[in-house]
Design a protein that fits this description.
Blueprint: H1 3-24, H2 26-30, E1 39-44, E2 49-54, H3 66-80, E3 88-90, H4 93-96, E4 110-112, H5 113-123, H6 126-136, H7 141-154, H8 177-190, E5 202-205, E6 208-211, H9 216-219, E7 223-231, E8 235-244, E9 247-256, H10 259-277, H11 281-286, H12 291-318, H13 326-336, H14 339-343, E10 358-359, H15 371-378, E11 391-392
Parallel strand pairs: 10-11
Antiparallel strand pairs: 1-2, 1-9, 3-4, 5-6, 7-8, 8-9
Helix pairs in contact: 1-12, 3-6, 5-6, 6-7, 10-12, 12-13
C-alpha cells in the first residue's frame, strides 16, 4: 500500500477526531486561540504569498521569536568574518543576570559561537542571546537592538521594533505574525547553509545536554524548524516551517494558552495550507467527502469547507486525474476561494484539552497596597520561559527584611 496514502488518511483521521471531540468539549476548543493575543498567518516562502491569516498585521510581542533575528545578525557576522564559529565569547555579569530560560554560565566562563547558536535554537537561552547582542553591539545590547531593528526593516519586517536580543518583556518590543513569518522565510533564503541549526533536536555541550523546545520537529511530518517563544503578554508563540511533496509552507501562531494548543493549531493551519496547495494529504482529503469537509471546518471554519467543496466540484467538472498537480490545484483554490476564506482563520479545535501551565506561585506582601506593593507583586510574575513546556519558571522577588527599630541589629 502507498505509504503516502496511509499517512494522509492518518492525518485525516486526526482532524476528523478533532472535530468530533471539539463538539463534545466546546470549552476546550476555544482556549486562547481566538483571544485578544491571537494572531496567525501561513505563507508560501518561495514567493512570499500569504495563503491565509488572522490578525496577521496586528501588533504582538515576539517573546523568544526575537532570537530568530538575533541569529540572523549572527549569521551575517559569520559571513562577513566579524565572528567565527570557534570563537570564544566571555560571559559578562549583565548577560549572566538574565532570567530563565537560560544556560546559566557564570560570569567569566566562555562559550564558542557555535555552541551559542545551539543554545539559542534549543534552550532558548536568554543569557547567551544577551551575550551575543553585547558582542555584536560593541558592548551594548541596546545598541544591538537598534541594529536588529534597522536590519529587520531592510528585509521587509516593516512593523517590527526590537529592544533586546532575547525577547524578554519590553512594552516597546513589537512585531506581527506576518513579520515573523517573513523572518523565517529570509533565514531560509539568505542563509541556506545555516538553516539546519533550527532543526536541531538535541545538542551535547560538554556535560550539558540541550533539548529543543520545539516539539513540532518530532510531532508533525515534514517540519524542519524553526523557533518557539513565550511571555505572558504574548502567550505561546511559534514560527514553523514544513515541507511536503516539494511544497514548503511557513506558519506563525501567536497567543496559545499552552504549547500543546499552539502546536496543534499550527499543525491544523499547515494541513489547511497543504490542502490548498494540493500537496500530499490535501489531494486525498479532496477525494474523501464528506469527512474532508468536516475536517476542514475544524481547521479553517465553514468558509474553508465551502472552498474545498468548490475546488472538488471544479476538478470533477474538468475530469482531472485523481492526483492533482500542486501548482494547478493551488491556482484553482486561489481562483475559487472567497475573500473571507483567504483572509480569516477560525480557531482550530483540539483533540484533547491542553494541560494547564503551572506557574510559580506569586508572592504577595503581607502589608501595603501602594505602588511599592504593586511593584513587588509584578516582580514575581512569569517573565520568560522560552518554550512553553509543562512548567513556566519565574524569578521570585527578594524577601524584604524588616527590622524592629526597638531592637538594634546584632
Amino acid at each position: 500500500m502507498d505509504m503516502s496514502f496511509v499517512r494522509a488518511v492518518r492525518r485525516l483521521g486526526l482532524l476528523a477526531a478533532s472535530t468530533f471531540l471539539a463538539a463534545a468539549l466546546p470549552g476546550a476548543a476555544q482556549a486562547q486561540i481566538g483571544s485578544a493575543r491571537y494572531a496567525a498567518v501561513v505563507i508560501e516562502p518561495s514567493t512570499g504569498q500569504v495563503l491565509f491569516g488572522a490578525h496577521a498585521d496586528a501588533p504582538r510581542h515576539p517573546a523568544s521569536l526575537t532570537k530568530m533575528m538575533t541569529l540572523y545578525m549572527v549569521f551575517e557576522a559569520l559571513r562577513t568574518g566579524e565572528l567565527r564559529l570557534d570563537q570564544r565569547l566571555v560571559m559578562t555579569e549583565t548577560a549572566a543576570s538574565r532570567p530563565p530560560s537560560k544556560l546559566g554560565l557564570p560570569p567569566g566562563r566562555t562559550i564558542s559561537v557555535e555552541n551559542a547558536i545551539y543554545a539559542l535554537v534549543t534552550k532558548s537561552a536568554n543569557d547567551v542571546a544577551s551575550l551575543l547582542g553585547e558582542t555584536l553591539g560593541g558592548g551594548s545590547e541596546a545598541r544591538f537592538a537598534q541594529m536588529m531593528t534597522l536590519r529587520a526593516r531592510a528585509i521587509g519586517m516593516t512593523a517590527t521594533t526590537f529592544r533586546n536580543a532575547s525577547g524578554l518583556p519590553d512594552v516597546e518590543q513589537i512585531t506581527t505574525a506576518h513579520d515573523m513569518a517573513t523572518l523565517g522565510r529570509r533565514l531560509q533564503r539568505d542563509f541556506p547553509e545555516r538553516y539546519h541549526y533550527f532543526g536541531t533536536r538535541s545538542h551535547q555541550m560538554g556535560t550539558i545536554s540541550l533539548r529543543n523546545h520545539n516539539r513540532m520537529l518530532t510531532e508533525y511530518e515534514g517540519v524542519d524548524g524553526i523557533k518557539t517563544g513565550y511571555i505572558h503578554a504574548s502567550g505561546f508563540n511559534i514560527v514553523s516551517s514544513a515541507r511536503r511533496d516539494n511544497v514548503r509552507l511557513i506558519v506563525a501562531v501567536f497567543g496559545g494558552s499552552s504549547w500543546v494548543e499552539r502546536d496543534r493549531h499550527a499543525a491544523a493551519l499547515l494541513e489547511r495550507g497543504f490542502a490548498q496547495m494540493g500537496a500530499g494529504g490535501g489531494a486525498v482529503m479532496a477525494r474523501s467527502a464528506p469527512a474532508a469537509s468536516l475536517a476542514m471546518a475544524a481547521v479553517g471554519g465553514t468558509a474553508a469547507a465551502a472552498t474545498l467543496r468548490r475546488v472538488r466540484a471544479t476538478r470533477q467538472a474538468r475530469v482531472l486525474p485523481a492526483r492533482v498537480v500542486p501548482a494547478r490545484a493551488a491556482a484553482t483554490a486561489r481562483a475559487t476561494a472567497p475573500a473571507a476564506a483567504r483572509r480569516a482563520v477560525a480557531p482550530a479545535r483540539l483533540v484533547r484539552q491542553a494541560a494547564p501551565v503551572r506557574v510559580a506561585r506569586q508572592a504577595v506582601p503581607a502589608r501595603g497596597t501602594g505602588r511599592v506593593a504593586v511593584a513587588r507583586r509584578a516582580s514575581a510574575t512569569v517573565i520568560e520561559q522560552g518554550d512553553g513546556g509543562t512548567r513556566v519558571r519565574a524569578t521570585p522577588p527578594r524577601k524584604v527584611v524588616r527590622r524592629n527599630p526597638a531592637r538594634p541589629a546584632r
